[in-house]
Amino acid sequence: MKHNHSRERIKKMCAMLGEDFDSPACQSMQEQINACPNCKVYYDTIKKTVLLCQENDCAEKLPKEVHNRLLHILDLDQFISNK
Amino acid sequence: MDEQKIIERAKQGDKAALSQLVNTYSERIFNLALRILRRKEDAEDILQETFLTVIEKLHTFDGRSSFFTWIYRIATNASLMRLRKKKLVFQDLAEDDDYNDSVESRVFIDWTQDPAVNLYDQEVKMKIEEAVNKLSDIYRSVFVLRDIEGLSIKETSAILNITEENVKIRLRRARQFLRDYLSEYFEERVIHKNET
Fold it and tell me: Among A26, A68, A70, A11, which residue's Cα sits nearest to residue B103?
């Protein structure tokens, strides 16, 4: 019985891992997650993983030469700025 | 001038209008491609390919979706095509039932409070890169659009032309895979630290 209960809780927790962490679905599971230490560690490490990936994001400012090459290829040379 | 008017002018061949669209979207498209392909040279190619497609197909844009969704769909598809052509080896993800069973039987170690888990550590950064690079195209695209770009489930579903339910399933599996990959490394560090 206990086994089924735990399995059900994990299944439910995993099912909502595709939602936003602050979504109502995740919020409503929070109490159940907190009541199960192993589930809580799993959930927290998922959240931390996403946070680390976001902080490690490789986005950057578009280099000017890349922008100018794009304008040239699109035959928009008159909009190339030399500033 | 609002975007719809700019698009209409660009459709008529107005170069100033087209350059406005380039100025508005080029940086976002470049970064989207960079996030998917992880290489600047590839991101530049995708940027050019995207706008060449925009010029070619702009007359077919009917405004049913937003221009943002439309151009993002072009750029995402181009990025994914390139990723597939690279013939990289991606990690196979376990089936959901098998995965749930394995979660149930495992004991997890909490590494979230370990001060060594930070991005000042080059090895940590490298591990994160490694993990994302293991994600195959279908999972990587959802992860990038949802968790990195911060787009909604609805927007992601429209860009990738998949159901919202599929967006959720793919995001969950991507997150679980990344967690497991990083945890293997971080847990070892925690255990090693506790032993010394």
Answer: A11
